[in-house]
Every structure is written in structure tokens, then in C-alpha cells.
Amino acid sequence: MNNVDDLRLRLVQATAGPDPAENLKRLGERLAKLPHRPALTVLPENTLVAGRAETIRAAADTVAGWRKRLTPLAKLADAPLVIGGVPIRDGRDGIRQCALVLAADGTLLARYDKRHLFQLRPGKPNGTDETALYRPGRTGPVAFAWNGWRIGIAICFDLRFPEFFRALTPPADIWLCPAAFARETGRAHWELLLRARAVENQCYVAAAGLCGTDVETGFVCYGHSLVADPWGAVTAEAEPADREAVLETVLAKARLADVRRQLPALAARRD
Asked: Mind spelling out the 3-state secondary structure of 6-42?
């Protein structure tokens, strides 16, 4: 790193299938091949299981159950690991779609239950409706602290709700967004939304995108993992954009302070 206040970030762009064990095995193999240096690591939404509703229901587990299976991945990251779209059992029949943040030793640092559930042409043969499978989160945004950074967590469809990001007080230095954006909406809105949330909140926004085609549903994911800085500039992008890739970059705390000092928009807010 260039400065002790800087943050090394790793976005793992991945595909996923219907078998959680196979997905975990492949993720572990990919992380093990990376150069060994601690980096805050973000995996995409639905990276542990992708498929039809019955497939996801069968894979749903408790937080404790997922922690046990995910701790080896966190150890490989040697830094907090953020996993989005984890199906967590909620009562007898309910499921919530969660983001879990695990320390390298498996300690749970944060849990966020996805607040906004994705719908695209609901009820149509080619539509998607997460409300038919998941219960929405009941709390506002969640943040955790690491190495002097305040880190907010959002999941995919949350990007369309700017008030959700503004509700976090004090504001985040960086928002992490595991996502499984549809190729259709991604082409139109993905970069636009990420850059807008960065500008509005004068912070970094980093999104890890699922890529590939769901073998059970045919849903095509957009990939295109990227980082936008507090000025709204895209500072890093996955290559290739639509296939598996690992994006590693360093975020500068000085850049964050400089933008907020030169254009004190957050201080000028009037609720």
C-alpha cells in the first residue's frame, strides 16, 4: 500500500451453479491461487447458490451453518470477507437474502438482510420476482469498521434507492455491493447507478458482480465489477468484464478527504 490509511480491496467476479459445495470448492481454489496479501474481499450476490426457487430453498441454512462453511474462504482472504446473497433461514418457511461479513478467523463482523427485493416483469414467463422467495430485510443500512474505514453494505437492487444510502449516519467511506445484475438492466443502468451513489455520498462504491448464465433459470448476469471513487470516476474495472475475473486495487483515504474538503456537500445537507 502507498499509505497506512489506504485500503487494499479485492472484488471476485464469479459464476455460480446450483450446488453450494461445488461453488465453495471453486471459490476456495480461486482464492488459494491469488498472491498472498491481505485484502478486503467481496464475493458477488448469489455466489454460493444460483438456480430455481426450490434449489435456493434447499440450500438455505442458518448463519452458524454458513459461517462454518465460509470460514476457510475468509482465512484465505486473510482479511474481512463479504459474501452477498446468502440464503438464511428465517423461521420455519421464510428465507432472507443476506450479506455476511466474516473476519479471517470466522468471526461475524456484520450481517445485512437485503431490504429491496428485485422484480423485473413479475408474473411473466421471462420475469424475475425475488419477493416470491425471500422476505425483505427489516432494518436500515448496516456498516462495520476495519482499519480506520467505515464500510457500508448494500446488495444489488438496493442501488436504485438513494435514500437507503443517505440513511447511514455517519456516512460510509466506502459502500460494498455484492450484486447479480441482469444483463438487460446492467447494460442500461449498472455503471450509472454505481457512479451516482458514489457522487451523492462522496465515497467509494465497489461492486462485485456475478457473471454467466444460470443453468436452471437461464438468467444472464452482467458481471462488470468496478470501483467508483468519491468524485464518481471509475478507477478500476474487471477484465474481462463479462467472465470470471479478480479485480484488486488500493483505495486512498486521502482522495476521500480531498473530495469532501473541496466540495463539502455532505456538510451542506439539510434534512
From this structure: CEEEEEEECCCCCCHHHHHHHHHHHHHHCCCCCCEEE
Question: Contact at 8 Å (CB) between 186 and 219?
Answer: no
**pLDDT of 1:** 44
Catalytic residue among 98, 130, 156, 253: 156
pLDDT at 115: 97
Helix axes 20-33, 63-77, angle to 10 degrees: 20
Whether pTM > 0.85 for this model: the answer is: yes
Q: Active-site residue among 25, 33, 75, 114? A: 114
Catalytic residue among 45, 98, 221, 253: 45
Rounded-to-integer distance, Cα 101 and Cα 167, Å: 20
Q: Based on the residue annotation, tell me whether 248 is a catalytic residue of this protein.
A: no
The answer to whether residue 156 is catalytic is yes
Q: 10 Å Cβ neighbour count for 136?
A: 13
Q: Which of the residues in the chain have pLDDT under 70?
A: 1-2
pLDDT tens digits, one per residue of 92-124 = 779 999 999 999 999 999 999 999 999 998 888
Report which secondary-structure segment, H or E, holds 185: helix 183-185
Running DSSP on this structure, what letter comes out for residue 182? B
- Catalytic residue status for 33: no
Cα–Cα distance, 26 to 196 (Å, whole number): 33
Sign of CA dihedral 4, 249, 265, 147: negative
Q: Name all domains of the chain by residue range, CATH numbers in brackets.
A: 7-261 (3.60.110.10)
